[in-house]
Give the backbone structure.
Amino acid sequence: MKHFLRIFIVSLISIVFDSGCIRITRIPYKTTLGSHQLSVTPDCQSVSTHSERRTEEDGSSRILYYEFKCGDTTVLIKDNSLNVNGSSYGTLNDGDMIAVNYGRVTVNSASRPADQ
């Protein structure tokens, strides 16, 4: 019985001390905008995506821009230029992967500062 009580007390102490180390990990919201993969952290409950397509005289069409809103984060891709929350983050190449993590912008895992 003493052995069981020791194990119980040690387990309880471990749980109490470890509880301060628990972190809540936010899973990013992921979507595709044209040829680009986008992930936004923190995830949000209100999401909207909008794009505008223009039909050319020859019958072909092209997307003029993509706009994605996730809570307080707005991502706009227009003419291969990336804009996040009103700030420009340079140009994109086809297939670039964009991540917005609590306002920090990375493209293909490389941090991008806002253009001044």
